[in-house]
Amino acid sequence: MHREEQGSDFLNPDRLFPQGPALSIARELYESVANLPIVSPHGHTDPAWFAENRPFTDAAALFLTPDHYVLRMLQSQGISYDRLGVPRKDGRPVAEGREAWRLFAANYHLFAGTPSRMWIDHSLNFAFGLTEPLSAQNADALYDLINKRLADPDLLPLAVLDRANVEVIATTEFALDPLTHHRALKEKGLIGRIRTTYRPDDVTDPDVPGFRENIVRLAEITGEDTARWEGLIEAHRKRRAAFREMGAVATDHGVPSAATADLPAADKQKLLDDALAGRLDAAGRELFRAQMLTEMAGLSAEDGMVMQIHAGSRRNTDPVLMAERGPNLGADIPMRTDFVNGLSPLLSRYGNAENFRLILFTLDESTYARELAPMAGYWSSLRIGPPWWFHDSSNGIRRYLDQVVETAGFYNLAGFNDDTRALLSIPARHDLWRREVCRFLALLVAEHRLSKASAREIAAYLSYQAAKDAYKL
Amino acid sequence: MHREEQGSDFLNPDRLFPQGPALSIARELYESVANLPIVSPHGHTDPAWFAENRPFTDAAALFLTPDHYVLRMLQSQGISYDRLGVPRKDGRPVAEGREAWRLFAANYHLFAGTPSRMWIDHSLNFAFGLTEPLSAQNADALYDLINKRLADPDLLPLAVLDRANVEVIATTEFALDPLTHHRALKEKGLIGRIRTTYRPDDVTDPDVPGFRENIVRLAEITGEDTARWEGLIEAHRKRRAAFREMGAVATDHGVPSAATADLPAADKQKLLDDALAGRLDAAGRELFRAQMLTEMAGLSAEDGMVMQIHAGSRRNTDPVLMAERGPNLGADIPMRTDFVNGLSPLLSRYGNAENFRLILFTLDESTYARELAPMAGYWSSLRIGPPWWFHDSSNGIRRYLDQVVETAGFYNLAGFNDDTRALLSIPARHDLWRREVCRFLALLVAEHRLSKASAREIAAYLSYQAAKDAYKL
Amino acid sequence: MHREEQGSDFLNPDRLFPQGPALSIARELYESVANLPIVSPHGHTDPAWFAENRPFTDAAALFLTPDHYVLRMLQSQGISYDRLGVPRKDGRPVAEGREAWRLFAANYHLFAGTPSRMWIDHSLNFAFGLTEPLSAQNADALYDLINKRLADPDLLPLAVLDRANVEVIATTEFALDPLTHHRALKEKGLIGRIRTTYRPDDVTDPDVPGFRENIVRLAEITGEDTARWEGLIEAHRKRRAAFREMGAVATDHGVPSAATADLPAADKQKLLDDALAGRLDAAGRELFRAQMLTEMAGLSAEDGMVMQIHAGSRRNTDPVLMAERGPNLGADIPMRTDFVNGLSPLLSRYGNAENFRLILFTLDESTYARELAPMAGYWSSLRIGPPWWFHDSSNGIRRYLDQVVETAGFYNLAGFNDDTRALLSIPARHDLWRREVCRFLALLVAEHRLSKASAREIAAYLSYQAAKDAYKL
């Protein structure tokens, strides 16, 4: 039905570079950064992979079922999650790997113009030497090749980190996580290269299922009275320390809005009482999250852990999908976000605190030039995180650099995060970022807005050092 | 006063194409789509034109007084609607055609850089062979030429459809419309090429003047008890069927916001009771519209008619204009729109329903990347309509493609709508869309993000087939 | 630490121009406007400079401490305002000029890619002949050179106006300002070239410290009973006349939102009573400002003064900075702004009033295409001000022209404002605007969207005549 892509232009070495006089500048800049090590300070890879270092199971489990970008696009064109092999809670059968893989391959044209297409092309080439796009024609052969290759030593998870030149990678665990895999990694001397991140949404967000039980569990783990505000904060202090032992340099907070609060002590205790009694309405739950963000900022100013806020996703917008298969499968949608008014209480208290570092991520691009860049261009604690989620794409990065650099400069940016669950896409994503950074800088040089020497320096900074600086690595 | 445009570059065949290496690719792509038939699934042409097939009256009535883009621009520079010949409700005299035309021509420089300029240049060339821009110098001669030519057989409305290679065109009628002209068209065997669209704002929006009378009239037409919720919905069911007999494949809904609701039956009846008693405040009227959108979605899931939502216009912002001359004369202004929270009730129920198709149109470009593309990239019912109204322009199309494609892909786009009241501008508008699509694709090819074969396929899809697919034609 | 910029590309004559075929068009357009006189109808230079015409004190006082763009960027990277020599309210010592200047120079790389970098490079070249960028190496020598040169006749404030070819410049004074310096200027025959602007925020905004005392003082100055609404308006009428005697052609209004109101007389008096009694809550203070904007519009329709609204800044977001050093030092951050609903009461009354002119400025770029362009493309009173504050930059201007021109045209734009407190940056800012305008027009010409003759005309208009027309100069 759909004509095949011509293989000749597959992964062209000049891809994404600007046309015209800036092309040679972009090439030169890219050559200077293409082989820098990868620093991956925020992401969602599974620590079990690295602790156990066992082969991945099959092609579909690697490229299809865990990739919500891919699943959602196929679903949007009427291909059901059953047919894509996404497991159901009720255990009813779904398509098997090869069947789902064929469907994916036969619909690969749907990804034309999307970052998924670039990531997957790159990953298939990086890991399996593919030199033409996935298609209905090569689906079976490729499926067999991948499954055969997965047991090879160079495709074990730790070997992938080596091949991809990953200097450091952070995973993300909830506050109650036992960090079992990180303990195993510590015994192997791998903490440092692999690190956890403290993401306490399970005990800071009353909208999380099991929140009240989680607070009780937090008390058990830490020996603190988490029904008292001081005890709750002390419990966080202890968990943060425990996470730091497993390499954590940062915390992460997923919140629907950027609202923060700075309440008097009595109000905080009342808020906690109401939360534990299940008495909070939607506004109360929002206020609880808001106050907890400010508390986390205070602890960061104290212990030096870098705070990340990922604000503005409306989670699980499809109740049927949630009921049948659970979260993180493609039905989370961005919302408008207000950082200026939302963060005011937190920043008024800690914005210029000496030891404090806060990295902001947005799904609302209208905040780049209006809010994030002006804020990061003033407060010493703030850095702007790279384009997040739907915006981590070529054009998304172009809009980001276009809108933040003039007001925030280059040195208030946090470099790149791949933020991925897909191990093999890590080099692809960093490569795309580096290409787009070089493109942007090359255009500035071509317009005589930046010297080539500065461009080279900034290219290296944004490709590598900025992430280390931002995360105090 | 203002120097004339030089005629030599008038309608240059390379207009809008990118400079540099992508130019030849754009040319090649454009050649492959330039002559495809026009599919116009949403617009506001007058069905009487096609049913009666009589000549248009004069140049001003053709190009000036019905074109709110043109009127508003002249008004913004202090040229009153009286002087432009826009009729008054009180019947007081306004300028005559030639006088208004001269004023338009003398101020044609105001349209530099606007889409109106491109549409009018193209239309004047298409219909009257003009090879230089309208100006004070050629105003009179052109006025005479147009008026002389209007009676020629090749400028009768049906002949214009032929010359413009229009395969199918949809008009838009309210629920109470008798569809007289479509009946005449049916007798002539023209339904199919010309179709109506069901736009029930007259009976779904309590803010419409005469709303309560309209509900009574709806009862009379359908024989249903429209004071009962079930009867009201049944009446819609009947009207939709009647519209389908006149070729309708779609419904259309003009709403100030994208709010939807999914209330229990008792609340719906109470809402209707209050609406018919005139007891609804602004929030209640909003809720009525919100519930009606969800009802319409349910009926679409049932009868397969494609649902269109045009959300976010604040209508009639100039009370003086409204009082003196009525609506649709240029004083409607876009507002911020929230699709994510607004559509949640409707999509939670029907978002992945098998027979349901919903096309969304926005006037708030900040929703492209933040809301519409992520939503259309998940829900199987959703398609993103083309840039609407103020954004249906070269740069508007560029921003649209830039911001939607990476997340929604090409195949969740609904192709092009000309959405026009101006018959002669239809080929101009489709040509502009095709040029911009080819430009966008050519740049992707030049950056090695897309093969030329895929680009050709997508160019044809977005120029022609996407509209047929989206509207189930 | 950071490599120096290479001097060879310093202020390249082709800077900011497009690459490829449009380059020569941009050059040609720019040559035709580069030397036009500067019209600066809105800004914040100190009238004492022109009235007294005394030398500036030192390099840091000229380039560093008054420039909040520069201060905030250095502060964002952890360089405290103490070390930058920004005076404290408590009189505790801060760094001296040379020390602060060295710090600025050593961190000049932070400004890569920012407009500050372009403005300062240009200013240092314009005033002191510098041909390489500021750096740690040349900091001391440059500091000495600047301080030595400041007493030279060609660097006195009035001489700078001559050298920069400034035809007219407006300062901005509050309603209670005695206009002492403008009186002195009037005696010297300089009113006309130098003009004041009426900015009555001190008596229209109940959130201004000392508001109630200011209203009393306004009564004393004008002899009106400012506790009565009619008296308050009459007092404005008198102050506006007094400002016009000092050359004022415009008023200016700095407001957090674009809210306006049109209340009945009794409500207005009650609002004033409550304001004077200190009884207004936040919503009441917002309503007071909202009503005052409509009153000011009424007075402008009466006396012909051009009204400017600068809406959407959240002022003084850092309470520590405010307490220690005061306002206007870099901690003001943009907020989302709603012009459509906000301005509705004002425009419903005065939007097409014959003598009324309103220029709107936004910090929320999402309003360009969605609100400002559609509004300015309808109401005859409206003009869109140039990109403001954080958006007055190369990419900011590109986004502005991209998003406003197609709907508002070129002739509803107000030309350029430099809006600066930094005298030496005035030619730099106008030059940047002219370059970007020529770039935009050159790209339109290269795409065959505009004839070269029209582009030349529009380039001259936006560089010079538009500001004179918009401000009735």
UniProtKB/TrEMBL annotation, chains A, B, C:
Its EC number is 5.3.1.12. GO terms for biological process: D-galacturonate catabolic process; D-glucuronate catabolic process. It is an enzyme of class 5 (isomerase). InterPro entries: Metal_Hydrolase, Uronate_isomerase. Gene3D superfamilies: Metal-dependent hydrolases, uronate isomerase, domain 2, chain A. It comes from the Bacteria. NCBIfam families: PRK02925.1. This is Uronate isomerase. It comes from Chelativorans petroleitrophicus.
